[in-house]
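This part of the workshop introduces the protein records we will be handling. A record pairs a protein's sequence with a compact description of its fold. Comparing a sequence with its tokens is the quickest way to learn the format. To make this concrete, we reproduce a full record directly below:
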Amino acid sequence: MQIRDSHELLLSKWPWFLLLGVVLILCGVLAVMLPVLSTIAVSSVLGVVLSIAGVVKIIEALQVKEWAGSTWHLLIGAVEVVGGILIYLNPLKGALAVTLLIGIVFLIQGVMQIALAFRVKPQSGWGWLLIAGLVALGVCAAMTMKLRYTSFYTPGTMAGVALLVGGCAYVAIALANRRARRTPRPA
């Protein structure tokens, strides 16, 4: 597939990227609000939030199969679903194990988002994907460095920030492609 065909696909499928961005932002907000809840509830809800984000990413990737980054998108979604399920099923295994598992999910997600950004680099919004990947790697680093947690700085809060940035990246991609679709192309 040529870059032009991939660009045309993005122009026609921008609502799917917008939907994904909005869902990720909502999941991020929910994850940031988790510190108010108990430790078990935090792990359970975070597992559900990651799974929902992953399922929506998989559905969106299947809707834009022709896009150059759809395979990477599908893989990122699968990692989030598997990681979310593992976190949800093991809320009592201890905060350290859950924190490490969340860190691993965001390590894989970050690496894949960075790879996706470079895969779609000539297209609008690729820089947002790069930033989202770097934020996910930062979340992973903070979690694995065993930084002291407070009520404002917890695994749920950090995961929420990564989801929020990822959501903003997809909203930016959708809006850039919507604007490009409205702009007439020179002949």
Remarks:
- The first helix runs from residue 3 to 12.
